[in-house]
Amino acid sequence: MAHVFEQLSLWIDPVPRDGPAQMACDEALLQKSDGVVLRVFRWSEPWVSIGYFTPWQGASEAGRPVCRRWTGGGVVVHEEDFTFALIAPRSEGWARLRPEESYRVVHAALAGALREAGHAATLFANAARGGAACFAGPVRHDVVDERGKIAGGAQRRTKRGLLHQGSVQAGALGPEFARTLAGALAVKKTMWTPPEDFEDAVSALARGKYAREEFLRRVDP
Prior knowledge:
The protein is of the alpha/beta class. The protein has a single domain (5-216), classed as BirA Bifunctional Protein, domain 2 (2-Layer Sandwich). The protein has helices at 19-32, 99-116, 175-185, 198-210, 213-216; strands spanning 5-12, 37-41, 47-50, 66-68, 75-78, 82-89, 122-123, 143-145, 148-157, 161-168, 186-191. The strands form two sheets. The chain has an eight-stranded mixed beta sheet, with helices on both faces. A three-stranded mixed beta sheet has the order 4-3-5, covered by helices on one side. It is globular. The termini are far apart. The model has no long low-confidence stretch (mean pLDDT 91).
């Protein structure tokens, strides 16, 4: 299978962050990165993330803290999943693909990485629609195995580029799988180092946007 990118930078984020900080971190990456970055991250505790257009009612009843993503999709419980963000500038061909095709391309690479790690992963080919709970059922080009959906994602496009946020719920996948996924996506891999002002930008976005009630409840009636 052809690689998606010629080169990317892998960042295995060492900081376990809460929900607003995770979302802010991905937006800050899209704002500040001039190249392709694959960020793999851990949560400070179990969280629920909801898509940008998902109603707040119901998600807040999950018994876990809730954050709202900048990307679309439904409700995702982050407990023992492998979570990642892929950021690419507009200059990359992948960032200019139609949404369904960009989703398929990144999930084809993800399925290949999972197969390399010993999982019988493939892409869901049907046009069925999933429910509000993201992992309740697959949509086209989600990653599935014999049990059902094991990986999904959501995207956001801006003038700067494309952000894809993904969750893999296929058992314990550690830093070695991050390297496997990076290798499936790009021919050449380097390690990404945050610039000095990066954490300040993350903190400002978390406080000023993602932790604010107005953003969390934006689609309430």
